[in-house]
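Render this sequence as a predicted structure.
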Amino acid sequence: MNQPTSAHGRASLTTRLTLALTALAAATLLTACQSRASANAAAATPADAAAPKAGDPQMLGQQLLAAAAQGDAVAVRNLLAGNAPVDVQDVRGNTPLLLATAANHIEVARSLLMHGASSNIQNQMQDSAYLLAGAQGRLEIVRMTISYGADLKSTNRYGGTALIPACERGHLETAQALIAAGVDVNHVNRLGWTCLMEAVVLSDGGPRHQAIIQALIDAKADLNLPDKDGVTALAHARQRGQQVVVQLLQAAGAR
């Protein structure tokens, strides 16, 4: 027959049992916490690794490109103040200034130029902010890029200066600004055409093109430079029935 357990023995057994249960509970809690921490870390690691940190130049650059394209002048100024790379380029080679120029966001363009943006960086289409401004008749941006050091001798994918497409498209004020800045009025592009030739051949000879042709005459453009086929601007104007243009050219001594 078993002997009755003493009071002291029962107390010791109870103490040991309590300690064991406490240890088991602590171990269980620790394991659960570690599991949750591991799960959280596993879930967060991929996103954290991919996400740029605050102030990351790449992130700031992408934000600047977007803000410039949207014409958000406040965001552009804030990003520039935060050291966003002013001449960052997108996958097509566009800079923030190029994007602002394309949409004629004048205040954005001004902020970018004031922070050192280059108006001469060319994208994959060989457009720069300066060249694009000339081609699109963005007069204010043309003036700003010139004042901030645009390369007046730079050429587009057709080998033409900013003045040639400005004359072709009838952007009178832009053409006048480019002429006043000193762009070569006799530059010949890859098609063999000068700005005068394009103002005749690629236009209807209307009032704006007449004014551009007069501006070229006043700037002492060579009126007799022929195209690759030996045809002069005067001959082209006659062929197209541009009577006013013919009169302007003849009065200036064109042959």
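Summary. The chain has two domains: 57-151, 160-255. Residues 160-255 form a domain with the Serine Threonine Protein Phosphatase 5, Tetratricopeptide repeat fold (CATH 1.25.40.20).
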